[in-house]
Write a structure and sequence with these properties.
The complex is a heterodimer of chains A (about 375) and B (about 425). Chain A is about 20% helix and about 40% strand. Chain A is of the alpha+beta class. In chain A, the strands form four sheets. In chain A, strands 6-2-3-4-17-16-15-10 form an eight-stranded antiparallel beta sheet. In chain A, α1 packs antiparallel against α2, α3 packs across α4 and α6 packs antiparallel against α7. In chain B, the strands form three sheets. Chain B has a six-stranded mixed beta sheet with strand order 1-9-8-2-7-6. The relative contact order of chain B is 0.11. The longest helix of chain B is centred in the last third of the chain and has 22 residues. Chain B has 15 helices and 14 strands. Classes of the chains: A alpha+beta (about 375), B alpha+beta (about 425). β26 of chain A pairs antiparallel with β14 of chain B.
Chain lengths: ~375, ~425
């Protein structure tokens, strides 16, 4: 195998594909990228056996076709450190790969391409199209609420739900839940649900940019997303996602409307003196104002008063301030609606004009 | 200050010097320290709700017959002028850290039992700190300085058990020193409620059998005690003689609570392993609830017949329910995928939090399990351990013959 390509043309693809490679691997070959040079194009693949990312780069000067696996992180580090306008020649001789550019020369080890494991994508049963921007937004609106290494493994990912007229993403760590919806027509009957693991979600979100379509294919055990030159295939989490509709409160009897930026800044300042471990803040809602109070074991205290629209029965309720901040960071509207019922039940946070987007946060007993 | 004067000049004769330091009415004293208006008044630290129990009563409140673990409603009736203060565990914890730091200056071997009490192994420290009485006075002085005015009662003896009984002998701000050769005579007149592991049910049983003071137990025949009370009887006999081989564990605080049992016969059947995990989960959850703690982590320990030991752990949403621990333990056991056979099956919990600490509510949690396990505790507390158990455990020898209620038995003895 022998090809020549500019540093520029391969930089982003190489970095994205390397992103999938874990720092610690169970098999040595998983530290490598599969590199295939054929028909004037270059194909790079990285995998951790759960998520596989493949990119095809066209218009490559392929002098000799072939394939090999090359250490991913080392290759990406070398590539990044080369001068901006460098032309790079890559070749494989015996069991070594050689990277040459200007006066630099690197000899890297290789492993046989035949040992490289592929994630078996298979045919997808359900398919839908969204612009990359919209898919990116859908993920960004909810992914912060995914659980991390929870024993309830089905929470360590994002639910993707497809119906004939919408695509919905839902994430929850059991304490708060985020839901976002995009109108999208697809040829499914009823509704199809799949849980994309945390890593698949983060890697996918890094790929998406621009107005071009992304095609999402959901199979029984895999999801495959094609966007531009990239194909990301991820295993799905085999499990039952909780019935999210059940935990979205529909009967909150107290409604608070406030300015998102003002609230966000008040929470940020109050959080400085909240208990570092629990991050609890006390909200007191009374006529036309919301007071945020925080204190810590050193008996330091913060108090912030924010004018809001509210004329119901006063209420005092505690929350983990980070959960509130996370929501206010992803909402885009100037105003925010907070629906509450009592001290022990969840808050529903919505953004006016954003249909199908909702955030549910359970309170904290302080 | 009270000092028990006894012949304890021959310090070099002490085989071990164990100190038990116990803060006086800790939570209430902290409230009085922080709020001068409360000083000199009967202060009761406890939840606002009438359904809860008093956590600590200040010394001003005690003449009214009010004490910790008493239902709030009862305390209100007995002490109508008492000032009720909700607990501030974060504050207590912050002060506790200062107190533990003081203890650490005295000995590298400090075993914190809770926020407000600890054992210190001062064996061999005579040359540095002087005799037991000087050590005790110095601890009192340093704690008072570090906290800005809190007092501690100190017991010193050659065993953990006697040191603990001694620290409670004169309170507040007391010092009680019991040299090894005086232990038996000093313990003899004390009530059997002072025996470690003797709860209300056991105390009644002891009284029924004619054992009223510790001396009665010490004088009894060990074989008779074993027949009357089983393994617990032997334990009591040892304690009554002042025999207690437990060492001071080097640990910062009781950060974990576990139940590990070597089984009567090795188990291989996954259903049987799970049954032992369930049993351990029940025990650990009950202990956590009785201590007012919740755990944020679960670990399992399995030792194969070939003595190979496996431990696996995971984080969970903080809980004090056996159902949660059991579910996590089963996932860990399934993931381990070892065929056994196992000679030891254990379940432990760690990342312990006060139950009253801020508590994040969950979207998918149910109140039913928590009510069920609470009722179970109440029944077993009233009618004795094992009064109510799982139907499938009935008749299972390996599970039901371990009903001895001995505190500390399950805790990791050493780091």
């Amino acid at each position: 195998m022998k090809f020549t390509i500019s540093r520029e043309a391969l930089l982003r693809p190489l970095q994205l594909v390397t992103g999938v490679v874990e720092r610690r691997q169970t098999l040595p070959v998983l530290a490598n990228l599969l590199v295939v040079a054929r028909n004037g194009a270059l194909e790079l693949t990285g995998t951790d056996l759960e998520v596989e990312l493949k990119v095809t780069v066209g218009s490559v000067d392929v002098e000799q076709e072939g394939e090999a696996t090359i250490p991913a992180r080392k290759l990406a580090d070398i590539w990044r450190s080369l001068p901006d306008d460098a032309e790079v020649k890559v070749s494989v001789e015996g069991d070594r790969s050689i990277v040459r550019s200007g006066r630099s020369r690197f000899t890297l080890s290789t492993l046989p391409a035949g040992d490289f494991p592929r994630v078996e994508g298979g045919a997808g049963d359900t398919e839908f199209h969204l612009t990359q921007d919209n898919l990116h937004k859908l993920i960004a609106q909810v992914s912060f609420a995914m659980a991390q290494q929870d024993v309830r493994y089905f929470l360590n990912g994002m639910l993707l739900e497809v119906t004939p007229d919408h695509v919905r993403a839902v994430a929850t760590d059991g304490h708060r839940l985020a839901m976002a919806t995009q109108p999208c027509s697809s040829a499914v009957s009823g509704r199809v649900q799949a849980i994309v693991p945390r890593k698949g979600v983060t890697e996918l979100s890094r790929l998406l940019e621009g107005e071009d379509d992304a095609t999402v294919m959901l199979g029984k055990n895999h999801v495959s997303v094609r966007c531009g030159d990239y194909v990301l295939t991820s295993k799905l989490v085999d499990g039952q996602f909780p019935d999210y509709e059940k935990v979205v409160p529909r009967d909150t009897n107290r409604s608070v409307v406030g300015d998102r930026t003002t609230l966000k800044q008040a929470f940020l300042r109050a959080s400085i003196l909240s208990n570092e471990k629990y991050r609890g803040v006390r909200l007191s809602i009374e006529s036309e104002q919301l007071t945020v109070r925080a204190n810590n074991p050193d008996q330091e205290e913060a108090e912030e008063t924010v004018p809001v629209t509210f004329d119901g029965e006063p209420l005092e309720i505690g929350f983990n301030v980070s959960y509130l901040q996370d929501v206010l960071n992803v909402i885009e509207s100037a105003e925010v609606h907070i629906g509450l019922s009592d001290t022990n039940n969840s808050a529903l946070i919505e953004s006016p004009g954003q249909e199908g987007v909702a955030y549910v946060v359970m309170p904290m007993r302080l | 200050m009270h000092v028990k004067t006894a012949d304890h000049t021959a310090d070099s004769a002490w085989s071990r010097v164990i100190v038990h330091a116990d803060m006086d009415a800790f939570y209430a004293s902290v409230e009085q320290l922080d709020n001068p208006e409360l000083r000199g008044k009967p202060v009761l630290v406890g939840p606002r709700s009438d359904r809860g129990v008093v956590l600590t009563a200040s010394y001003e409140a005690r003449p009214f017959g009010v004490g910790s673990a008493m239902p709030v409603a009862v305390a209100r009736r007995r002490c109508p002028d008492g000032v009720f203060v909700p607990p501030r565990f974060e504050r207590y914890k912050a002060l506790s850290q200062r107190i533990m730091a003081v203890f650490a200056d005295f000995s590298p071997r400090v075993e914190a039992i809770s926020l407000d009490e600890a054992f210190l192994d001062m064996s061999g420290a005579h040359a540095i700190f002087g005799g037991p009485e000087r050590i005790a006075r110095e601890i009192q002085r340093r704690v008072f300085e570090a906290t800005g005015g809190l007092t501690v009662s100190v017991g010193v003896s050659a065993t953990k058990y006697v040191a603990k009984v001694a620290s409670g002998y004169r309170k507040p701000n007391g010092i009680t020193i019991v040299p090894a050769h005086e232990v038996r005579s000093w313990l003899a007149p004390q009530d059997v409620s002072r025996l470690w592991g003797a709860g209300p049910v056991t105390q009644e049983k002891l009284h029924g059998l004619g054992y009223h003071c510790i001396g009665d137990v010490a004088a009894a025949d060990e074989a008779l005690l074993r027949r009357q009370l089983g393994a617990m009887g032997v334990q009591f006999h040892d304690l009554a003689q002042g025999r207690d081989p437990r060492r001071v564990a080097r640990r910062r605080s009781a950060q974990s609570l576990s139940s590990d049992r070597t089984l009567a016969s090795d188990v291989r059947d996954p259903a049987e392993v799970r049954r032992h995990l369930q049993r351990a989960a029940d025990r650990v959850a009950k202990r956590l609830r009785s201590k007012g703690l919740r755990a944020g982590g679960v670990r399992i320990k399995l030792k194969t017949a070939a003595f190979q030991q496996f431990t696996r752990q995971c984080a969970i949403a903080p809980s004090d329910l056996a159902a949660d621990f059991y579910a996590a333990a089963c996932r860990l056991y399934d993931a381990l995928g070892h065929p056994g056979p196992f000679r030891l099956v254990g379940l432990g919990t760690f990342d312990l939090l006060r139950a009253e600490a801020p508590r994040q509510l969950g979207l998918f949690e149910s109140a039913r399990q928590s009510n069920l396990e609470g009722v179970l505790d109440a029944v077993n507390a009233r009618f004795g351990d094992g009064a109510m158990h799982r139907a499938r455990d009935t008749g299972s020898q390996t599970i039901l013959d371990h009903n001895v209620n001995l505190d500390f038995v399950d805790e990791d003895e050493d780091g």
